Amino acid sequence: MDTIFKIIELFKAFLLDIGELANFAGRFFKEVFKRPFEFKEFLRQCYNMGNRSLLLVSVTGFIIGLVFTLQSRPTLQEFGAVSWMPSMVSIAIIREIGPIITALICAGRIGSGIGAELGSMKVTEQIDAMEVSGTNPFKYLVVTRILATTFMLPILVILGDFIAIYGSYLVENIKDHVSFLLYYNQVFEALEFGDLIPATIKSFFFGFAIGLVGCFKGYNCKKGTAGVGLAANSAVVFTSMLLFIIDFVAVFVTDIFYGL
Fold first, then answer.
1. Residue 109 carries which DSSP code?
2. pLDDT at 260 over 70
3. Cβ neighbours around 38 below 10 Å, total
4. How much of the chain, in percent, has pLDDT values that exceed 70?
5. Which contacts of 223-229 are long-range, i.e. CB under 8 A and separated by 24 or more positions?
6. 237-256: b or e for each residue (b if 16 or more CB lie within 10 Å)?
7. What integer pLDDT is reported at residue 28 of this predicted model?
8. What is the pLDDT of residue 1?
9. Distance CA 192, CA 46 (A)
């Protein structure tokens, strides 16, 4: 009986969290069109987020390209279909693997950083001090970070995709001495707008989700140093779950429009 009550309480807390997150998102859309526009802070956040994630995304994308090609090649060799490797790798990476893996990496790298940063500012009452001094902390801290993640993630996804495809090319070049020009011609011949547009659009939603959840957890951090760690940790967990939900909805909608 106690277990049932605990499950009910956890479910209530989850629904309450969803409601507060929706209210937080509504406040963002309300504040984003109001003056003053913190353009310098927005550019600074874009630079910091892109610079901090660039190396990690590049290395991960390169390894994904290597591993995916090495794992898939023996199966294609059994059916005499190794020539399909560039097409298969490019479609799989650009449609699904590249965006979701890059988003998960950024959720751990950027989302946790935002949660910890805003959480520490909340605990040390810096946000309260900004309100007292007449500055809108939500506009300066939250809006700029959400916009930065929304616009930077698609750039990181595109970069990760190309590096992953390059890693795949290296494997093919070592195995079969395939030229760079031939490999990339086969890659772009296999791609269509139906592959590129949905993947790019959902990358914006991934970035928005990372920034929104990270700012929400940090901005509403409880008092105490333990709350900062909890905000950073819960930001990563909640964002990862939200990313898979967004990805499922994106694939479902894409299948409706492009699968006809």
1. I
2. no
3. 18
4. 97
5. 223/123, 224/123, 225/123, 227/119, 227/122, 227/123, 228/116, 228/119, 228/120, 228/123, 229/116
6. ebbbebbeebbeebeeebee
7. 87
8. 59
9. 29
The answer to whether 147 touches 42, Cβ cutoff 8 Å, is yes
Comparison of pLDDT for 77 and 237, the residue scoring more = 237
- Our measurement of the distance from residue 237's CA atom to the centroid of its chain's CA atoms, rounded to an integer in Å, reads 13
Count the residues in the chain.
Answer: 260
- Token representation of residue 258: 């492009």
Cβ atoms 90, 62 nearer than 8 A: no
Tokens representing 201 are: 């659009």
Map tokens 């409601």 to a residue.
19
Residues 6+ apart with CB under 8 A from 255: none
Work out the average pLDDT over 182-191.
83
Cis peptide before 137 (omega within 30 of 0): no
H helices present in 32-97, as ranges: 39-78, 85-92
For residues 123 and 143, what is the distance between their CA atoms, to the nearest angstrom? 20
Q: Of residues 78 and 116, which shows the higher confidence score?
A: 116
Q: Residue 117: its pLDDT value, please?
A: 87
115 to 66, 220, 222, 231: CA distances (angstroms): 33, 9, 12, 5
Q: How many CB atoms lie within 10 A of CB 138?
A: 18
Task: Of 171, 119, 121, 144, give the one whose Cα is nearest residue 28.
Answer: 144
Query: 11 to each of 7, 19, 145, 248, how far by Cα in Å?
Result: 6, 12, 29, 22
Which of 196, 187, 118 lies closest to 157 in space, CA to CA? 196
Please classify residue 204 by burial: count the beta carbons closer than 10 Å to its beta carbon, then call 0-12 exposed, 13-18 middle and 19+ buried: middle
